[in-house]
Fold:
Amino acid sequence: MKILSRTLKYAALCALAISLLAPKSAEAHCQVPCGIFSDQISFETMLEAQETIAKANVQMAELIKKDDPLSVNQATRWIMTKEDHCKKIMEIVAEYFLAQRIKPSDDDETYVKQLKAAHTLTRAAMKAKQDPSAEVAEAVKAAIFDLYRAYEGKEPDFHSHDK
Structure:
């Protein structure tokens, strides 16, 4: 038990050190209306990020049980990967949908529905950073689909992702 405690402390310190030293760069799309990116690509990117979050949760749980330096290292890398993908979802919502695509309209009901869905997705991604459960990862996927419904006004039709 003492080894596990020491290992978890080491993993936390490594994760903190790496996060402080890692370059802080955003990969968000510019805010010039060039038309290169599409709404569909943005939704697909968020769904891929959600799948990575879900996989990271499983991998972390398996690696933490092993209690050896290599497993701690790999678990730390999965934690960082999960953090990055949660952040990616939050950036797409904020910098693509809220800043560029969701616009006030004469139909206040649709606008409010889109804003609520975007906010719910942002909060779900934030919670996924903190909680490694499968339920929280699934809540992110559900929130992506809910944003799609509010934004597109129809049911999602993604070929590689569950509905």
Remarks:
- Residues 23-28 have pLDDT under 50 and may be disordered.
